[in-house]
Amino acid sequence: MELPVAFVGRVARDLGPEEGAALCAALDSVPPVSIRLNPAKCGDAVVLSQRLGAVGQVPWCADGWYLGARPQFTFDPAFHAGAYYVQEAASQFVGLLAGDLAGRRVLDLCAAPGGKTTLYASLAGPEGLVVANEIDRRRASVLADNVRKWGTGNVAVTACEPKALGELENWFDVVAVDAPCSGEGMFRKDPASRGEWSESSVRVCAARQDAILREAWRALKPGGRLIYSTCTFNRDEDEGSLERMLAWAGDEAAEAPVPEVGSEWGIVCGRVGAFRTYRFFPHRACGEGFFAAVACKDPELDARMRSPKARRTLFGQADKSAVAELGRWVQEPAAMRFAAIGDTFYGWPAAQADAVRTLSEVLPVICSGVAMGQLFKGRLKPDPALAFFAGLDRSAVPAAEFDPERAVDYLRKAEVRPDALAEGMNLICCEGRALGFAKRIGGRVNNLYPASLRILKSER
Ligand code: SAM
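Above: the input record for the complex with S-adenosylmethionine. Below: its predicted structure, written as tokens.
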């Protein structure tokens, strides 16, 4: 499909005929393929990236790699184990703008399918918390699947209007708005997006961005950072959104410390008031079209953290024996808190457990922390999510190592032969990475891989 005529005309006017033509030519070239490794699961980064065909590192993200070609990720057990995320390179840049996230509370307001959420989760570490919100329920469930697979255990997924999150006033150290936009930066990677673009969709997106930024600002605490990003080149949705925001928030915005940006990276750096801006053009930088900006909320502002009144009590206490059994399954039980929601027990990083409880009392939380499973006669029947948790204590359950072919059969939820499995519950692994559980009862095996996650594609 051709590029929209109005788009071609606009970029020629904005960038000049030569650079406009270079951008349009790049949008018709082959997009680079990139991934981001999961530091908690990838093992030796060089070994895994080489197996995937890495040809170089993404310069602005320590865990980002370019691949020479697109492997069939669907048939790679390491992909299903959450050892990496297939993420466009330019969008990995937001990690640099976030600063030191260790132990911080992050709100990712427009989060599905979870590329940036999983990046923030790795950076926030076991003491931090990422609240990942997605307004669209169906997309929120994909986000929740990706978060579980990433296995950091420090994410809570919500599916709300941004207004509901804005009511958690001054709560977050970092608020990220990866705004729904007209998607001009995706014209290469997703040619169908060319047909969806129109000048009126730009206006609708800009108005939506204004509304989201208002809620994002309410949720940000003084001294905290706002990261605004889009995958469009459109000024009205990029600099324009920031200008409109500064018209009402200008006094409260301050400059954030910014990272060094290598001139060879090809990023176009700029400024809108207190915001530093970064634009990725595919004819200059190795990635898709992307725009990112960062500013702080004035640290001197006198603002109190406020949350709405609790609407429900969800958490049931885990008694001593439950805590002992649950603690047996994790590497650092003392650093976790456990509680029951309905008949399922969950674990959260102790440092953020109270925050998750407050959140769960005021908002519909789809999933949070680690779903540990259910207790029967004092013994844990593990939830599939526990297999993905990077903090799982492997001594709690025997591991059965499968070769990649057998692992793919397991992931298809096909019948599992009993050989190599111990009697009872087993953790199914490939290259040492956990994929899920299976239970052997004599000569029979129950494949406990979740049906919703199974591989459906038959052709290799
Ligand atoms: N951050 C995601 C990632 O890195 O994988 C991509 C987010 S995508 C650019 C924008 C998201 O905003 C979409 O998932 C979309 O459903 C959501 N969205 C759409 N309308 C919205 C609204 N009015 N408020 C908040 N989010 C909205």
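Notes for the reader.
The CA atoms of residues 86 and 418 lie 33 Å apart.
The pocket of S-adenosylmethionine is lined by residues 91, 110-116, 134-136, 139, 162, 178, 180, 208, 212 (CB under 6 Å).
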